[in-house]
Amino acid sequence: MKLLLLGATGRVGNEIARLAAKDGHQVNVLVRTPEKLPSDVNAFHVYRGDATVKEDIEQAIEGCDAVISTLSSDGGTVLTEAVPLVIKAMQDRCIKRLLTIGTAGILNSRTDPGLLRYQSSESKRKLTRAAREHHDAYLAIKESSLEWTIVCPTYLPDGPPTGSYRTEKDFLPLDGKQISTGDTAQFAYKQLSSEEFLHSRVGIAY
């Protein structure tokens, strides 16, 4: 496959880039600072640009079969600016498969039915700005015609993949406390060839 990867300089993004290249996929990456790409990330084509710029997205996505976004909220409005551009570019080119990395805050709450975790007593975070940004991105993706999956990790320390973790559709696995960057990347990458969590958020934790 030919993939567009957004967020390749991030901790989960560069892990996904390695996995995809190892399997022989052609990986286009769109990054603001190519110099920050790890030396062992073997991208097919590196585009210098910004995911919030329509022309940059359109250039990088041309000819791709699927899109993976590991963009974070970045302390600003990157997600809410980039996601609509990605959706439009994909729909215009009949590209269906979209995988994104979200946050456990946008999963359903177990303690307060009808609310998301970040809106409920389940969340220990006092600041909700980043979660609201992820929530708005989720709503835009949900309303699209794409075949989407949003992988929602909880606390995300650096660490290699173990292959041993729990997942649950629309909820964080019970008592889940953390998940490594390696296992998050491995699970998200596997969804490229799976329909198990189509049109779903999926919580992941140990």
Structural write-up:
There is one protein chain. This protein is an alpha/beta fold and 206 residues long. The chain has helices at residues 11-22, 54-61, 78-92, 129-142, 181-190, and strands at residues 2-6, 26-31, 45-48, 66-69, 97-101, 147-153, 166-169, 200-205. An eight-stranded mixed sheet has the order 3-2-1-4-5-6-8-7, sandwiched between helices. Helix 4 links the parallel strand 5 and strand 6 (147-153). Helix 1 crosses helix 5 (181-190) and helix 3 runs parallel beside helix 4. The longest helix is centred in the middle third of the chain and has 15 residues, at 78-92. The two termini are 30 Å apart. The model has no long low-confidence stretch (mean pLDDT 95).
Strands, helices and their partners?
Layout: E1 2-6, H1 11-22, E2 26-31, E3 45-48, H2 54-61, E4 66-69, H3 78-92, E5 97-101, H4 129-142, E6 147-153, E7 166-169, H5 181-190, E8 200-205
Parallel strand pairs: 1-2, 1-4, 2-3, 4-5, 5-6, 6-8
Antiparallel strand pairs: 7-8
Average of pLDDT: 95
Question: What global shape is seen?
Answer: globular
Low-confidence stretches: none
- The helix content, as a percent range, equals 25-40%
The neighbouring-strand order within the major sheet is 3-2-1-4-5-6-8-7
Strand content: 15-25%
Structural class: alpha/beta
Largest sheet features = 8 strands, mixed
